[in-house]
Design a protein that fits this description.
With about 325 residues, the chain is α/β, with parallel strands linked by helices. The protein has 3 domains: about 5-105, Rossmann fold (3-Layer(aba) Sandwich); about 110-115 and about 185-305, D-amino Acid Aminotransferase, Chain A, domain 1, CATH 3.30.470; about 130-180. Helix content is about 30%, strand content about 30%. It has helices spanning about 15-25, 60-70, 85-90, 90-95, 105-115, 115-125, 135-140, 165-175, 225-240, 270-275, 280-290, and strands at about 5-10, 30-35, 50, 75-80, 100, 135, 150, 160-165, 180, 185-195, 200-215, 215-220, 240-250, 255-260, 305. The strands form 3 sheets. A 6-stranded antiparallel sheet has the order 14-13-10-11-12-15. A 5-stranded parallel sheet has the order 3-2-1-4-5, sandwiched between helices. Strands 6-9-7-8 form a 4-stranded antiparallel sheet, with helices on both faces. Strand 10 and strand 11 form a beta hairpin. Helix 5 (about 105-115) crosses helix 6 (about 115-125).
């Protein structure tokens, strides 16, 4: 029996996602993990684990992953955290030459998602509504209307964001790496999108974020909004996602404001899966080189996700492989 070998890079706490892949691939899969944290809970749900360098944004991280993939005949690499996405996308062709499909969009698209100023310009250029966003030095030359958001240009997970009410606060809290953004109002929505790298939007599921903890959704519900599905088509046409991405936005009555793109599986994807958006099944078709048909809108609305804490208890951490 042919067994697919999948490597999750930086899996951390993504236990539920790993369980979904295990369920969908069944006995035909071996699941690997790569991390620099020996206490990652996900390790107890993987078949083998490997060490990688501490700084996952550097070339040596991608080179180490490439070495793991070559030595272990890995079929699929799935990166899961923002700091590693740029360097892995830059090495994508190297992985492909070694026979490993990397579930990541091309380098130019990942650059857009990593840089909030580029994200703003991308949305603006393709006609997607988005809050006005300024480089810090340009903003100070304007006659701004406060309050505004001060955000790290290259930040993630909602860290380092401040609401500022005047120029004194802005100058006290800002660094050269910050941008300034108009405040978007309304309910917060994340939309999981799956694409095949050619601009097609295969599936998209919007989910309302009811409660967030540490930048990740803790409680949510899938919603039906045909306009959002059309926005997903437009974003996919120009961003050309390969595999899973998610976009974040605010909806205030009929006003939409798109704020971010995450070029990876979102932490709340298991909710979309439970609603019928089976991304692992689509990935399996990719690996088998089978045709993938559009499934846009084929999911259940009104499915809740109400997360709670679980834990792994052990007297010994799993050993990580250096070779």
């Amino acid at each position: 029996m042919n067994r697919y070998r999948i490597l999750f890079s930086s899996p951390g706490r993504r236990v539920e996602l790993i369980k979904i892949f295990r369920k969908e691939f069944g006995d035909s899969v071996i699941l690997f993990g790569a991390s620099n944290d020996p206490s990652s809970p996900s390790f107890f749900f993987l078949d083998r684990i490997f060490t990688v360098p501490k700084d996952i944004s550097r070339d040596d991280h991608a080179e180490r992953l490439l070495e793991i993939c070559r030595k272990n005949a890995v079929d699929l690499l799935i990166p899961l955290v923002d700091p590693e996405l740029l360097v892995i996308s830059r090495y994508r062709s190297h992985f492909e030459k070694s026979g490993t499909l990397v579930l990541i969009s091309d380098y130019e698209s990942v650059q857009i998602s990593a840089d909030k100023l580029k994200t703003f310009r991308f949305f603006k250029n393709i006609g997607i509504p988005t809050p006005e966003t300024w480089d810090l030095k340009d903003f100070e030359d304007l006659e701004p209307r406060y309050p505004v958001l001060l955000k790290p240009r290259y930040g993630s997970a909602g860290k380092g964001i401040y609401k500022v009410h005047n120029i004194d606060q802005l100058r006290a809290l800002s660094t050269p790496e910050h941008i300034v953004q108009e405040i978007a109002t309304g309910c917060e929505i994340t939309m999981d999108i799956f694409g095949t790298g050619d601009g097609r939007c295969i599936q998209a599921v919007p989910r309302l974020r009811l409660k967030v903890r540490g930048g990740e959704v803790e409680r949510g519900i899938t919603i039906w909004d045909p306009r959002l599905l059309e926005y997903a088509r437009v974003i996919s046409k120009h961003f050309k996602p390969l595999g899973a991405i998610n976009v974040q936005l605010f909806r205030d009555n009929k006003k939409y404001m798109f704020t971010e793109i995450n070029a990876r599986f979102g932490g709340g994807y298991p909710l979309s899966y439970r609603a019928g958006a089976n991304f692992p099944r689509l990935i399996l078709k990719m690996l088998k080189r089978e045709p993938i048909e559009e499934e846009l809108g084929n999911y259940k609305k009104g499915i809740y996700m109400l997360r709670y804490d679980e834990a792994v208890y052990t007297e010994r951490l799993k050993s990580m492989e250096n070779e």
